Amino acid sequence: MTLAxxxxxxxxxxxxxxxxxxxxxxxxxxFLMIVVLSVVWLVSSKNSSNSRWNYFSSAEGMxxxxxPGTPEKKAVRGRINDSRFQDATFFVAExxxxxxxxxxxxxxxxxxxxxxxDQLLDAARDGAIxxxxxxxxxxxxxxxxxxxxxxxxxxxxxGKSRLQIFLVGRRKYIIGVVNLSANNAKNTxxxxxxxxxxxxx
Length: 201
Hints:
Elements: E1 2-5, H1 9-15, H2 25-28, H3 31-42, E2 53-58, E3 63-68, E4 72-78, E5 86-95, E6 98-106, H4 109-114, H5 117-131, E7 135-144, E8 147-156, E9 159-168, E10 171-180, H6 185-193, E11 196-197
Parallel strand pairs: 1-4
Antiparallel strand pairs: 2-3, 3-11, 4-5, 5-6, 6-10, 7-8, 8-9, 9-10
């Protein structure tokens, strides 16, 4: 499944009064997070009863993870404040109203040169929460094989959500659970902890 997001996202972001700072980072970096939440909401009407855990690996994405059930691949293309398109790939599975997702996208080299890892991760966090109309709870600084990341907890659409973002070279990985609860805390930890990079970057 392929989704396309065009220039109409820019006025939507501006309407939310997101601060444009340091050369437009507030518009650039949150793009992937906006897409992540949009992808998850597209499957919000599906309730799968298949809770069997399956090992999943992506050769192109260069990662592996365990999903409850069989994930569906979703390709996303969009652009904000730039003439270039940015592609992203996500794998999403839902069971008993809880959505599990893992995805990746490659940043442009000039963006990486212009902004630090902390700036990109901060902007991704702020963009995710703002565009989900969510409420920030807390975050932790984390790493994966030495690469920087964030473990973000927030409220959105009436439930708790948790996203982990890792910046691995040019590649940004996003792993998340939406509408989590105390009842699936164990599954959330299993899913997030199962994420592994397939090779050293």
